[in-house]
Write a structure and sequence with these properties.
The chain has 3 helices and 12 strands. With 173 residues, it is an alpha+beta fold. It has 2 domains: 76 residues, no CATH class; 86 residues, Sandwich (Immunoglobulin-like), CATH 2.60.40. The strands form 3 sheets. It has a 4-stranded antiparallel β-sheet with strand order 2-1-4-3. Helix 2 runs antiparallel to helix 3.
Length: 173
């Protein structure tokens, strides 16, 4: 089992790390709350992670991801095997700019599923088939929810995100 990491600023997929490496990250890095789905690192954190047991492959991925930047906020997500869900893209209302790095989350009862918009503003959120109605929310970096409502995932539906100049196109993946 692998965990996918993505840059919260650009939406770029950074790569996949092992579940063991992700456990090290969870133990060492701070979570703001129990529903936190991203982490913030600086160069100094890489040494702490390595000392705590991060593999050379995990260290290399985070080092490359950090690059020349002083810090990095990255999101994480685990794969789900499913043939249903939400797929679409989020961009400015005029459609002239994608909105990368947004957290797209769906809740069904106590279950939570999430992904992040990629560089082109696109996302694919796979969901279990129990229900077609989910509480869906979109959040910006830092976890601030910018839109949330119950959504019945009908293919082809376009939903405006509250007062934001963003739209989400819902399709079957």
């Amino acid at each position: 089992m692998f965990v996918t990491l993505s840059d919260r600023t650009t939406g770029q997929v950074l790569g996949q790390i092992s579940k063991a490496d992700f456990t090290v990250i969870q133990e060492i890095l701070e979570e703001e709350n129990e529903s936190d789905v991203d982490y913030y690192i600086q160069d100094s954190a890489l040494e702490l992670l390595s000392q705590a047991g991060l593999s050379p492959d995990g260290h290399l991925l985070l080092t490359k991801s950090l690059g020349e930047h002083a810090d990095l906020e990255f999101g994480w997500e685990t794969p789900l095997e499913s043939d249903t869900g939400l797929k679409g893209s989020i961009s400015t209302e005029a459609g002239d700019r994608p909105a990368p790095g947004l957290a797209v989350e769906a809740r069904f009862g106590k279950e939570r599923y999430w992904t992040f918009t990629r560089e082109d503003g696109g996302f694919e959120l796979l969901l279990p088939r129990e229900s077609r109605t989910y509480q869906v929310s979109v959040a910006v970096v830092g976890g601030k929810v910018v839109w949330s409502e119950a959504l019945d995932a009908e293919a082809g539906e376009i939903t405006r995100l509250g007062d934001l100049p963003l739209e989400i196109l819902v399709e079957q993946p």
